[in-house]
Amino acid sequence: MAGHSKWSQIKRAKGAADIARGRLFTKLGREISVAVKSGSDAKLRDAVDKARAANMPNDNIQRSIKKASGELANINYEEIVYEGYGAGGTAVIVECLTDNKNRTAAEIRHILDKAGGSLGTTGCVSYMFESKGVIAAEEKSALSEDDAMMLALECGADDFAASEDGYEVLTAPDSLAAVRGALEGKGFVIISAELARIPTNTVSPDGQNLDKLRRMLDNLEDNDDVQRVWHNAEIE
To answer: pLDDT tens-digit profile of 166-178?
Structure first.
């Protein structure tokens, strides 16, 4: 998949192996809450699917939905995107959900500064990334890779790749929901569907810069307000 084969290295999204389950579920619960309050069924569906893919218990999912529409409806999480630089000139985008943007901005700035990076202004690095819809689907054992690719393209996909974990399908951002629905109509089991920021070019930090970058990414992901971190570094 042109420009996409390394997206899973570049994307730093939370996984059960990266942080404690409780922190992971807190982040996923916030996404569900924001989706409920947005009134978008598609957004809520994607958030719930992501939670299930992370093995979040159904009781937790339902509790998050009820809280967003009930007793905790007065807690509003704001979606904020920070842009900046990591060690070695790495471009970094940090997507957050927060109920206190002043606190979050100070924490993100501190994490970047401490690791030899810096917080930038809006637009300083986002032009280096391309927005794409990314759909992960389970492999269909009855199909060859070529047949699966043809079906995905017929459903409106821009690109397709098979891996040990299944299929990865790229779409235009505004086609994500439509392509997902079409794939499900063809019998594909969708694991997740989300918008991704894919870098148009990459850098390869090494030595101390690489160590600093890894530490910065770990600290960002350990922050409860951080939902996703994107960067353009190639890291083994």
So the answer is: 899 999 999 998 9
Indicate if the alpha-carbon torsion angle 26, 69, 101, 193 is positive or negative. positive
Is the same domain home to 194 and 224?
no
Residue 187, pLDDT > 60, answer yes
Neighbours of 141 (CB within 10 A): 5
Q: Are residues 134 and 193 in the same domain?
A: yes
CATH number of the domain where residue 11 is located: 1.10.10.200
